[in-house]
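To: structure subgroup
Subject: Chain for Friday's discussion

All,

I'm putting the inputs and outputs inline so they're searchable in the archive.
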Amino acid sequence: MTFLDYFSGVSAAYATFRPRYPDALFDFLASVAPARDAVWDAGTGSGQAATGLARLFNHIIATDASANQIEQATPHPRIEYRVAPAEASGLQDHSVDLVTAAQALHWFDRPRFWNEVRRVLRPHGVLAVWTYVLFEIDPEIDAVVRRFYSGIVGPYWPPERRITEERYRTIEFPFDEFTAPDFVIEQRVTLDDVAGYIRTWSATRAFIKHHRLDPVDDLVRELARAWGAPHQSRPARWPVAMRIGRIGRVE
């Protein structure tokens, strides 16, 4: 089975620079799951969501189609990492209480993933999928980053990622949906952190592959004028958009 592999070449950077989700998000998922026994985290990447889930659930099966991503994943005694695509997890039927996909659904074959979710969830189990949009720091910095995002690397965004811009609102979601709170990722970042994060973007990787030069170097020089001391940290915010639903009887 083939998959859209945009991140194996930057797995270490992905593990280092991708933002971490707020505890409140995982507290909410624990409150709506029918039990806290087992979770499947699909498209885990390097385990950003899996490690948050491990605080509250007994056993996390975290899968990714990329062996390189799994190699860089954060170890945890409650997490079992496996190399497997989201459409064919290898999990047993009706074996988990919660399925999650964090910043990953847009890379999946959704109809096949929905079927896999129905197969592995227990009765009244919950599916939660979420994405985050472009980070915000301050108006001057945000304007520079938006020009880079839409202009410099804009033509290189894969078409699958369009649904993240729409905050997953436009996709089919064939589950008994209910409303999730609004969550925001908040963490302090340095200019080096921002550069490292932007270099993990799929569009940035595609630009570098096509042009054989790194556009982030020029971006950093432009940002430096607004940033101040390069090692100064600034608060960054990533708004999160979640779709969440439940299955009823075992299908």
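Points worth raising on Friday:
The mean pLDDT is 92.
Strands lie at 38-42, 59-64, 79-83, 96-102, 121-132, 176-178, 183-189, 234-246.

D.
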